[in-house]
Amino acid sequence: MNRFDRILWRINGVLFLALLVFGLLPLLWNLGGWRSHRPLHENAPAIVSESQGTHEKELLHLGAPSRVTGTSIFRIQISSEATSRGSSFSKGGYPSCVRNYLFVDYSDLSSWWLFETFDHAILKEHDLRAKLDGDYRPVISTVFEVATTDTNGDQRITEDDQVAAFFSTADGKKPIEIVSPSDRILSVDQVTNDQVLIVYQRGTKATAALFSTHDGAKLKESPLPTNK
After folding, report:
1. CA of 98: how far to CAs of 2, 164, 224, in Å?
2. 226 domain residue, yes or no
3. What is the structure's pLDDT at 59?
4. Domain that holds residue 12
5. CA-to-CA distance for 146 and 41, rounded, in angstroms?
6. CB 209 within 8 Å of CB 221
């Protein structure tokens, strides 16, 4: 390779490097901007709700949808923001809490709420299946553990209040209370294809009750022995 060819090769190399750098800069800039900026809707409140019995406001946010297996329905949490001590929304501070569920049927885009108001504290949900075993186990109903009233006098409905059990079909329509407010719900277990066992406690007394997984009807109830 003569001297002229070497010089031309170096010039071409420098030009190629310059084009590569300036071509990648916009891409890197866009990636950096995408990572450093959160989605605009992430911190925007979906609903402003007034806490039951007070004039305090809560900011509520929709969460990510989850499919109800075996149906054309998605279930979406709507939760309150956690507040710290000294917040304008709360004097003492409270953790985030699920206040309701939005159900959306993608087959016709109809939608509805589990409860009419947003002053519940939904602590857990237990999906009940058509079959306990097998690869395909569609959801036929759900039991929700829910605090519905302020029972400890702090003017908020949270996990620290008494909790009830509500039953609804898989579509979340027309929930019914099957266990009235109790100190604790100790367990919710589907024991057969057709029965769900709920164990709850009021004071020093614990009770086991069997309910239908199809309509929430109580099938049997029995007190549990306690230590004397």
Report:
1. 76, 15, 31
2. no
3. 87
4. 1-37
5. 28
6. yes
